[in-house]
Specification:
It is built from 18 helices and 36 strands. It has 813 residues and is an alpha/beta fold. The strands form eight sheets. Strands 12, 13, 14, 16, 18, 19 and 21 form a seven-stranded antiparallel β-sheet that branches. Strands 9-25-24-23-10-11 form a six-stranded mixed β-sheet, sandwiched between helices. The chain has a five-stranded parallel β-sheet with strand order 1-2-3-5-8. It is globular and about 80 Å long. It binds beta-D-glucopyranose.
């Protein structure tokens, strides 16, 4: 279709028809306009997978490793392939726009959505984000880079006013979005928060620099529910209000256009952008189907997810115990609750129902020969929020098959709808018009006797009965508008009830569907926790008698989730005690960390190896088994600096003061903050061991860097170990004696090389001339300070054995 087609179509639409298109028609769809052959454009959350329009456990998705794990691969080609897999999923589910990637920064280790963001380093976020965008969009599925901008933590995210200076915005928080625009992203999501006083959906930043200076030609979509006013947002660069129907634009925009408060040209620009997006994703009649290749088979998808999980895993410590030698393993003790129930994704809007989950225990059992004994103990309870009831614990009261019964009831109690479900988490209560109450019921057969804890999460009038006895009954008021809390993760009311082992009880939960009470009803039940001392002793006994102990520790849904920030970095429950107790009886203790963001590892010097597996996605166990046994080298390097203890971290604040969150650290974010403060973390940005070792032999740079284009840094490294390996050679810049404030040093490029034992290889690291520039707020321009920059090369920002000098001319911007 010709480029002028959207303009031609625009002329066919009346002002009313145009304005209608600017607000969503449903939670996930835009509106269609048959007069111009425009179909509904379907959006779906990412980045962990493509859930599609339904939040229904029967509709499964492939589940990727967390964004933090993808960034840890430092492998843009792999991330691009992952993007293509997301596009496959999108097409399978009829989705045109995937609400990903998440380009906010790891500013504070406490940020609730840390797992969903790539890195603390703006340049790395931009590179990895651009790769994902290219992968998605090469298959005709739009990416929506989110959340523009400075939405780096959760506390008060709907209203917080982030105060950040212009240079910091340019060099740190804008940078990944600018890279996304350079990569040709088709949509950008405007965040909930304010920046320097202006709410982002009404901010002039959407026009300048996003649209005019950077040349973004796609659609700016609001974060869900972020549009709160009609006129200022219409003047700003916002193009599409989601979700719909209803909201300020639906209700007020027509009048504002009619009386001239909003110019018609502004509406035309928005609709034109929407038509261009529809054209790009194949939602406009006459547009060629953007599908360009056949979808990956489930086998290929799993293989890619396995590869990505292994490539992102970071080996933090290893005294030589890894890789494990299969022949020497008579018994392996696999310890920890996460060994059987790994955390494969974080909490919040990005959640999907994975098509499968391979646990560490399953993965190891599948990988090891039959003669190896694989034994397991969970250890003490984690104190995690219990999982929703499911077919594992319950049967349907109506048919007796594993599962739960969902019924929708009229006000007089008459049944309007009934179906078998497989999860006590219901997020789609609009199954029938006019329903008054949702009911979830199940027959629970307790695996253990004692005091069970029941929980019912949701808002409004709720009740829960167990075995005919009412244990919860009340009205639960909604105290927030945050959709991640209201519709996905509402707080729970809890009650305890004594059950006898093996004696079935009927559990009936009801919630009245009053207006503004959200979509979620979640029914959970947890058995009495095992005695911590006994559970610890059982794990220690197994570990003592094993050749190797693998302890899988990690966070819980309660500790890493959208909608709230964390309050500490300690592993929940008694996990630190568990690691220490196991390590005390087995010198070959390997700890696997199952977390999306930093956690404290106070025992890291007491164990033989620490492998950070992140939130590894559905292939968790297979990837882990391959890594532990050396089929694959842990390929990851930290995309974020990890503190020994939270108190050491230079930037942690997520709590607004009087509604304001001041980014006082300015440019000094992430590793730059650590360097600026002169503090030593547990693990630097870029750190990660492999199964071989490397010597950094020499570095060569051109004498002079031109103002435009790029230059190449050549770093010679030698594989000094006994295995073939991959090394991520990193290049940083610094500017001794600079006349302007700067980071102590900053990442400028990297290249991954592979080499056989003993072999020497040249890493050619491309550095963009942009890396030499800084933003000059007075001139409103990027400038190069003439003079000598130091080029550092090495394996992390804290381990840079080589350096050279390059002269910048600095004649222009
Ligand atoms: C989140 C977005 C998400 C949207 C739709 C919002 O609350 O901040 O990341 O895409 O909901 O689920």
């Amino acid at each position: 279709m010709a480029d002028e087609e959207p303009d031609r179509l625009l002329e066919k639409l009346s002002p009313t028809q145009k304005i209608r298109l600017l607000t969503g028609g449903t939670t996930w769809r835009t509106r269609a306009e048959p007069a111009v052959g425009l179909a509904e454009v379907v959006t779906s959350d990412g980045p962990a997978g493509v859930r599609g329009e339904a939040w229904d456990e029967r509709v499964t998705s492939v589940l990727l490793p967390s964004a933090s794990a993808l960034a840890a691969t430092w492998d843009e080609q792999l991330v691009q392939e992952v993007g293509r897999l997301l596009a496959d999923e999108a097409r399978r589910k009829g989705v045109h726009v995937v609400l990903a990637p998440h380009l906010n920064l790891h500013r504070s280790p406490l940020a609730g959505r840390h797992f969903e963001c790539f890195s603390e380093d703006p340049w790395l976020v931009g590179r990895i984000g651009a790769a994902l965008i290219r992968g998605l969009q090469s298959e005709g599925v739009a990416a929506a880079a989110k959340h523009f901008v400075a939405n780096d933590s959760e506390t008060g995210r709907l209203t917080v006013d982030v105060r950040v200076d212009e240079r910091t915005l340019r060099e740190v928080y804008f940078a990944p979005f600018e890279a996304a625009v350079e990569a040709g992203v088709w949509a950008v999501m405007a965040s909930y928060n304010r920046v320097n006083g202006a709410t982002m959906t009404a901010s002039s930043l959407l026009t300048h620099p996003l649209k005019d200076e950077w040349g973004f030609d796609g659609v700016v979509v609001s974060d869900w529910g972020a549009l709160r006013t009609a006129v200022d947002t219409a003047h700003a660069g916002l193009d599409l209000a989601m979700p719909g129907p209803g909201g300020p634009w639906d209700d007020l925009l027509a009048d504002a256009v009619a009386d001239g408060r909003v110019p018609r040209a502004a509406i035309d620009d928005k609709v034109r952008r929407l038509l261009v997006l529809a054209q790009r994703v194949g939602a406009l009649a006459g547009t060629a189907d953007p599908a360009r290749r056949t979808q990956a088979s489930p086998g290929r998808a799993r293989a890619l997810l396995h590869r990505a999980a292994a490539a992102g895993a970071v080996l933090l410590e290893n005294d030589g115990v890894l890789p494990l030698k299969e022949g020497e393993l008579g018994t392996i003790a696999v310890i920890g609750a996460h060994a059987v129930e790994p955390r494969v994704q974080g909490g919040g809007s990005a959640g999907v129902f994975p098509e499968r989950t391979v646990s560490p225990l399953e993965g190891l059992r599948a990988r090891l020969p039959e003669r190896t004994r694989v034994v397991h103990a969970a250890g003490p309870d984690l104190g995690a929020p219990p999982e929703p009831l499911g077919p594992r614990d319950c049967t349907d009261p109506l048919t007796g098959v594993p599962g739960l019964r969902l019924r929708m009831l009229a006000a007089d109690g008459a049944e309007l709808y009934s179906e078998l479900r497989f999860s006590g988490r219901l997020l789609e209560p609009d199954l029938v018009e006019g329903a008054d109450t949702v009911e979830i019921s199940a027959v629970l057969t307790p695996e253990a006797g004692g005091e069970w804890t029941f929980a019912l999460a949701g808002f409004g009038r709720m009740s829960l009965s167990v075995d005919g006895r009412v244990v919860i009954d009340g009205s639960f008021a909604r105290e927030t508008d945050d959709p991640a809390v209201v519709h996905v993760n509402p707080p729970a009311a809890t009650a305890c009830h004594e059950l006898a082992e093996g004696t079935p009880v009927l559990v009936v939960a009801r919630r009245r569907l009053d207006p503004d009470t959200g979509r979620a009803t979640v029914l959970t039940a947890a058995p009495p926790p095992p005695h911590p001392g006994a559970a610890l002793a059982e794990a220690v006994d197994l570990a003592r008698d094993a050749d190797t102990a693998v302890v899988v520790v990690g966070t819980t849904d309660g500790s890493e989730s959208e909608g709230h920030d964390r309050t500490c970095l300690a592993l929940p429950g008694h996990q630190d005690d568990l690691v220490r107790a196991v390590a005390a009886v087995n010198s070959r203790t390997v700890v696997v960390v199952n977390a999306g963001g930093p956690v404290e590892l106070p025992w890291r010097d007491e164990v033989a190896a620490v492998l950070l597996g992140w939130l590894p996605g559905q292939e968790a166990g297979h990837a882990l088994a391959g890594l532990l046994l050396g089929d694959t080298e842990p390929g990851g390097r930290l995309p974020t600096t990890w503190a020994e203890y939270l108190e050491d971290a230079p930037v942690t604040a997520t709590e607004p003061v009087d509604g304001v969150l001041a980014y006082e650290e300015g440019l000094h974010v992430g590793h730059r903050a650590w360097l600026y403060a002169g503090r030593e973390p547990a693990y630097w940005f870029g750190h990660g061991l492999g199964y071989t070792t490397w010597a950094y032999e020499s570095v060569a740079v051109p004498e002079v860097a031109e103002d435009e284009g790029e230059f190449t840094v050549r770093v010679q490294v030698r594989n000094t170990g006994r295995r073939h390996g991959r090394e991520v050679v990193q290049v940083y810049l610094s500017r001794p004696g600079s006349a302007v404030e700067r980071p102590v040093r900053w990442l400028a490029g990297y290249a991954a090389v592979h080499a056989a034992p003993g072999a020497t290889v040249d890493a050619a690291v491309t550095v963009s001339a942009r890396a030499l520039r800084h933003w000059c707020a007075e001139r409103g321009a990027w400038v190069v300070e003439p003079g000598r920059f130091t080029v550092h090369a090495g394996r992390s920002v804290g381990d840079l054995p080589l350096s050279a000098v390059i002269e910048a001319r600095g004649q222009g911007s």
